[in-house]
Amino acid sequence: MSAHTDISTGPLEYRTQEGRMNILGFWIFLGAEVVLFSTLFATYAVLFGRTADAPVPADLFEMPMVLIMTFLLLTSSFTCGIAIHHMRRGSLKGLFVWLGITLALGLGFLGFEIYEFVHYAHEGASLPSSAFWSAFFVLTGTHGLHVLLGISWAVLILIQLRQRGLTPVTSRKVFIVGLYWHFLDVIWIFIFTSVYLIGMVV
Amino acid sequence: MSELTKRIPKQHVVGFVGSIILTVAAAWAAVGSDLPTPWIITSIMVLAVIQAFIQLFMFMHMTETESGGIQAGNMLYGFFVAVVIVAGSIWTMSFGYTHDHGGGSDNDNETEEHEHMDH
Amino acid sequence: MEFIDFLLEDFFVTGQPLIYGAMVSIVLVSIAIVFVLSYFKKWGWLWREWLTTVDHKKIGIMYIIAALAMLFRGGVDALLMRTQLTLPGMEFLDSQHYNEIFTTHGTIMIIFMAMPFLIGLMNYIVPLQIGARDVAFPFLNALSFWSFAFGAMIFNLSFVIGGSPDAGWTSYTPMAGATLNPGPAQNYYLIGLQVSGIGTLATGINFIVTILKMRAPGMKMMRLPIFTWSTFITSIIIVFAFPILTVALALMTIDRIFGSHFFTLTGEGMPMMWANLFWLWGHPEVYIVILPAFGIFSEIISTFARKQLFGYKAMVYSMVVIAGLSFVVWVHHFFTMGAGGAVNSFFSITTMLIAVPTGVKIFNWLGTMYKGRIRFDTPMLWSLAFIPCFVIGGVTGVMLAMAAADYQYHNTYFLVAHFHYVLIAGTVFGCFAGLTYWYPKMFGHKMNEKLGKISFWFFVIGFNVCFFPMYFLGFAGMPRRTYTIEPEWMALNVTASIGAILMAIGFAVFVYNIYYSFRYSQRETHGDTWDGRALEWATTTPVPFYNFATVPKIEGPEAYWRMKENGRTTYEKEKVEPIHMPSDSGVPFVMMAFMFIASFGLIWEWIGIAIAGLIGVLACMVIRSFDYDDGFYVSVEEIKQTEKKAREGEQ
Lengths: 202, 119, 651
What we know:
The structure holds three protein chains of three kinds. By secondary structure, chain A is mostly helical. Chain A has six helices and no strands.
């Protein structure tokens, strides 16, 4: 609103008041997302072990696949950071390349997750199998849905970058989708730890 | 500013390598180590929190610009509420009984409840 | 034929004269609205001025109008319940219908009345109080409003199409689960709350950023008017509490529609986990609807006692403490679940602790009035009545906080009396006080004082006559949510019903006062109706759409009071610059209309329609993403003309 508070140095995404407010607003939204996922984690923890007649998690979880998924997402978070770095250097090409890699890794992750879900369903563990499996599928599924949403959103922004190049508005959008992407990795770290690792231990 | 001229900034590489090490360490602690279960759970949760901070500080630049303090405070409060929700729900829904001291043994319902709570 | 059978048996609610009457009146009112709009050629005006607006002031007014309508609906529900309990043997309502009515009463009053009323006042006032020209995200603000409006519409639709939810506003499982509660009714509750919850969360984010980033120069955090502070703290609680409700509702929806086992009795689900999640959100929610009311009372008491607010810092810190503690008391809503001594003791103690900052505030209000030269205008009367009534509610709350004693009080009318004493004396009095107080700023004329006082006395006396006996009914063992009573509870129930009628008269006079004042009240010529202290009174009445012609410079607390003392105004003619304003947009309305379609599909488990609606929502998001409209500038010429016209009466 107040054009007079715009500044002319520093990263492009922070130069307008609007850009700064959008980024702060998104951080606060991420705070809400922390609560959203922690509610799902709480539900998962409370319903842990309530598998009824369905298989128990220790029989289904496999370390190699979980590790591959984790590394895919970890790497994509890293490449996303590099993409933002290139944006701040003013390199549109670098941004495209690194963001492209990020999305490809994200798609790879989704592929594995879908395979995993189908595999579990074949083994007799699906959403309606038991309280535990309901909690498992909704927790990991919500994360997967976020990843899918992040990819689609980033594609929209890539198109806008094509049309308009790097402006305060487009770079703000890229930065925000970047924050979103890193955040999904944070959530995955906790899924990896408290769902898969603990599921294999107990 | 010198960071900006590099193709790949050092901070990100350090963060990336750090998170890979932490992930492998957590995986090893879970399936490769002989630690007792409560220790495993505690240690891998600590590793996860460290990794989360790597993301927040090294990749997401949480503290940059004049809103950095607000952003960090916001996430901290988020973590506080998260701990309340997770720990509070586990504690409350276990009815405050732990499985090794028969606190609910005089009541069949409760005994059945906390059987499922063990982990 | 099958289709018609479906319409008559499942789709429309049939067989009850009350509901037929409601259907007829809904159809008649709809026809009347369409006719009036067409006859006076107002469709374009409605679309341009209201449905597409992103102006925080108009959005605030729409919130308040909708909330008043919902207060009417919730109030009618209450009167139906009172009628049934006064004539228990007469089969005025059957048990099923009674269940539906107490469910919709509670849900509507909390979600679709209290919150939108307060959010409406926040919308109108907060940007004015901090010297801003709009909220941080005006588009998002419009989206919030329409998500609330369509959410409320979805919920109210259940009344005539498909049947109302009947598991209480808390909707405990397994009673609210698919096995015991099949059909669309409970889905209305889940989806209606979900849709409006999206808007509430967005509002929370919006106000946090607005208050942090859009304050006029010199308006430090500790110089903020107290209502803005209460809005800020409330917004924080909203942001961290509403996602819990989102998840809880989603899980029950998945349980009901897709067969999962979160809260079911089969598949090793845990019904009490619903109660746990519901109250994890539900207790912070209580503070979401009470803190803004505290803010309103603080503003009013300070203005009408003609003194600076006593203990401003204590007020602020007590709200911060409340925001923290409000997340660690939730188990006191289900002490009787039978958790161990440690759990119940812990939550007993935290609950008692949270009474402390609330008590601090009471003393601050008393301190503000001490040695003040008090004016007894209607807003002040509401605030004065609030203090003793709320104390009664608060003290009985501490009684309920004792876990062991709660086994006696739980789910009796004692509890009903307690939460009505805090929610009506706190929130509803606060809404009436705030609306009367800021009414001249919004509409350019005061509400009639005489009618205001009549409505006040009817409502406050009625309130006490209605709810005070309920404490004793609770002691006498009358359970809540019962549609029939024992003979020994009769006298007090009749008394309560008389009180309810008095309250209804009070509300009717209040609404009539809106009409009467519109017709006959003297128009305000000056922006500062009540000799106010905060910045909203520095604007002209009516407030121009850009709020402030020149951004005010703030030099201390009570910004406007200071300006008046120094003989300055917020309008510096020579410093006027073009003002940047956001463009209106129809996208929020259309997006939420699609959401409405998606919700309707999901409620009836017609997945095709749900997906179609969802695609519409996503399409709107894509359109918004590609929209690079940067708003427009208001020219210096136009600003000067507007200000000249608005300030004519001041000299």
